[in-house]
Amino acid sequence: MYVFSRFARPALRIALLVASFFSTLTADAFDLAGGDLKVHGFVSQGLVHTTDNNFLGESDGQVSHDFREIGVNASWRLVPDIQLSAELLSHRAGGTDDGSVRLDYGLVDWTALSSEHGRAGLRLGRLKTAYGLYNKTRDVAFTRPSIILPQSIYFERTRNLTVSADGVELYAERYGETGSLTASFALGEPKTQTEAAKVALFLSSPPGELEARLAPDLQLLYEGAGNRYRLAFTALQLDLSYRPGTVDRLRAGRFKLTPLIFSGQYNAERWSLTGEYAIRRTSVSGFGPYFPDSHAVGQSYYLQASYRFAPQWELLLRYDAFYADMHDRDGKAFAAATRQPAFSRFARDWTTGIRFDVTPEFMLRAEYHRVNGTGFLAAQDNPDVHALRRRWDMVMFLASFRF
Question: What is the pTM of this model?
Answer without folding.
Answer: 0.88
